[in-house]
Amino acid sequence: MSSIEVDALVVGAGPTGLTAAGDLARGGRSVAVLERRPIPNPSSRAFVTMAGTLEALDARGLADELLAHAHRTPGVTIFGGARIDLTHLDSAYPYAMITPQTNVDAALARYAAAQGADIRRGVEVAELIQDVNGVTVTARSRQDGGLTTWRARYVIGADGAHSTVRTLVGADFPGKTILSSIVLADVKLARGPADDGLTLRSTREVFAFLAPYGRSDAEGAWYRAMLWDRRHQVPDSATVRPAEITDILRRAMDADPGVVEIGWHSRFHCDERQVEQYRHGRVFLAGDAAHVHSPMGGQGMNTGIQDAANLAWKLDAVLGGAADHVLDTYQAERHPIGKRVLRQSGLMARGVTLYPRVARGLRNLLVPRLLRVPSVRDALAGSFSGTGLRYGRGPVGDRAVHIPLTDGRLTQLARTPGFVLVRERGTAAVEAAGLTQAERADAGPAVLVRPDGYVAWSGSSADHQGWQACLTGWAASRS
């Protein structure tokens, strides 16, 4: 049995695991990724990348290449014609990107590999044992059954809703199933929705959620469709038949959309579940291993990538000598976000599938009115897109990537690991060896920005003691 030692071992080569692996490797840490599937997952359950995640991808140099082959949607049409308008977002990305998850996975895999992460496919975790100095993981090749022992300082379980790592650390996954027999399909429609954005159509019996891929020809346009029929609840293993897809689309849209072609399709159910603790000693759970929820709102992949972005730089800091309590902030910051996503996506799922006529009527009356109020519109769009995310009451904990700079963008500066000191407009650079600096283009205060793009400190750049104390509290000299 061979034995390999690394700083961090990531289990799962989905978007969460690949983001974490790439970030750690970019920081100079030795990282391996173990993925049970022998080849990249060909299915694409996720298809919407939100503005907050696009900012994270830009900080890794990936946003432009993905957007070049994707569709940009300006909003989401939901109940009673109500619209979540993304065009007012305070972001370089005032829209959502529509592209199959396979494209995002492939970009993140290239990123992780380019940074030096060792990605091994066709390997499954069989045993995990922790001690005070690290974690020993026994992994088995699915091809020949050969065993390898991995010794890591830390382990990230990013291995999905049926996480082996979560089981091995003994973490419960409380919750329940909220929707069954949901169908995902790529469909080419001759007569799709007139709206260029994400569009929901529903009756008391069915719903159809359509996302335009932006690919069309003389015959029609391609969409990712999420479909559900209250009267046809079958196991996930039941075959998805073309007639089922066509029937639900026709009933939900109250018209024949003209199905030209049906491509990839799948059936699944969705749960609402979340672990109580994201940290288990030297093992951390992230993405679907830590939380699953309704697909309404397209939050799953986005939340997982944000989990990884929050965790990886903290692991890097502690591997470099920072205090262990830095790692406790992962639970403190991300668990409430995961809980909010469960609540938000769950409310949307329950709103879509309301059955009583009176309740549906009130929903269709009130929601459009609320979303015409600018403050409500912007708050919901910010929550939906991730740009409204903050860790605290501000300004510390606020998102910083939207701050205008005299030269470039914060997401570009973030491609180099480490904190960034953004000085007030018109101030000279301070003496701070190895600290990236920039100058604000507006009248705001100086801020010290964490590697994940959030404010760690705010004040005057002349207050050397203030920002240096904050920097020392979060990080240590790199090793």
TrEMBL record:
Protein's UniProt keywords contain Cell wall biogenesis/degradation: no
Q: Which UniProt keywords apply?
A: FAD, Flavoprotein
Q: Note the superkingdom of the native organism.
A: Bacteria
Q: Which GO terms describe its molecular function?
A: FAD binding; oxidoreductase activity, acting on paired donors, with incorporation or reduction of molecular oxygen, NAD(P)H as one donor, and incorporation of one atom of oxygen
Give all residue intervals belonging to the FAD-binding domain: 5-345
Which cofactors does it use? FAD
Short name of one Pfam family: Rng_hyd_C
Q: What is this protein called?
A: 2-polyprenyl-6-methoxyphenol hydroxylase-like FAD-dependent oxidoreductase
Instruction: Give the species this sequence originates from.
Output: Mycolicibacterium fluoranthenivorans
Lineage of source species: Bacteria, Bacillati, Actinomycetota, Actinomycetes, Mycobacteriales
